[in-house]
Task: structure prediction
Amino acid sequence: MPLYEFTLTDFLFPADLPNNKANFRFVVDLRFINHRSQFATEHAVMPSLDTFWECDAGRSGKPNYVRSVGEEHLRIGDGSPDRCGRFEMEAIDDWDKLILLVRGKRIHSIQFKVFDVDRRDAWDKIKDFLGGIVEAVIGRIKGTVPEDLPLNLPESLGAAADDLQSFLLKKIAGGDAILFRGSTTFGELTDGEKARLTVHGRGTGGTYMIGFDLTQRDG
Result:
């Protein structure tokens, strides 16, 4: 089966977005056909649960600051071009640019949700929101597997249904402060082919655009 690699190449956001909202985390949901010829979903949080991309112009000294100098103009449809800020992609580590690697028979669609991140530590949110839920999930699993089988948080959450997992990731990654949501579907690729794609549209404060590369490699 082919291996599909998704890599972030660009992100534009409204230039007039208030500084206290210009700190971003993405939740990505990918639908594909797995080895059993069934629909499946993979999820990713970018850059991770324990950091975010900082674009507050007053916090340029922070190690996670990635706002490019200057502005871009992005036109969507027949409207006048919107003023946009942009990620300085050279400031982002290659590890953080990788969105997903997934092996399957065919990919179907991808959705990006962009969040204005509360700068509280993400693990504080996990404790606040998931405390009782995680205990219940672990308790249920421990009742069905041998006692000496080691369990940890990611494995427990990974056993949840796709929609519940996506919901929990959304809550951990940014709560309900969503700035933009957009998706696209895919056609067929051949081995080694790379497609440069975008997801764009209107969101909080103006226009957003996410650019990414999709490469298919022979399995």
Observations:
- The helical segments are 94-97, 122-142, 153-158, 162-174.
- The radius of gyration is 19 Å.
